[in-house]
Design brief:
Helix content is 62%, strand content 0%. By secondary structure, the chain is mainly alpha-helical. It is elongated and about 45 Å long. The two termini are 17 Å apart.
């Protein structure tokens, strides 16, 4: 999922020279991780979880 969202590995040069790209990659990583949790909740509930139950406010 991370790669499908445009994620790529971040090396030390990127950390130092491109903090904006580093932040973007971190956000994509988190979104990819949360997408799995969303699907698990959807399967458990039998329907898409409401934003409040999913905790959408944690995502930027």
């Amino acid at each position: 999922m991370y790669q499908e969202l445009g994620g790529k590995s971040v090396d030390r040069d990127t950390w130092v020279n491109s903090p904006e790209e580093t932040q973007r990659q971190w956000q994509l990583s988190r979104l990819a991780t949360e997408s799995l949790r969303y699907l698990q909740l959807q399967e458990a509930l039998g329907q898409p979880p409401p934003a409040k139950k999913f905790g959408a406010q944690r995502l930027t």
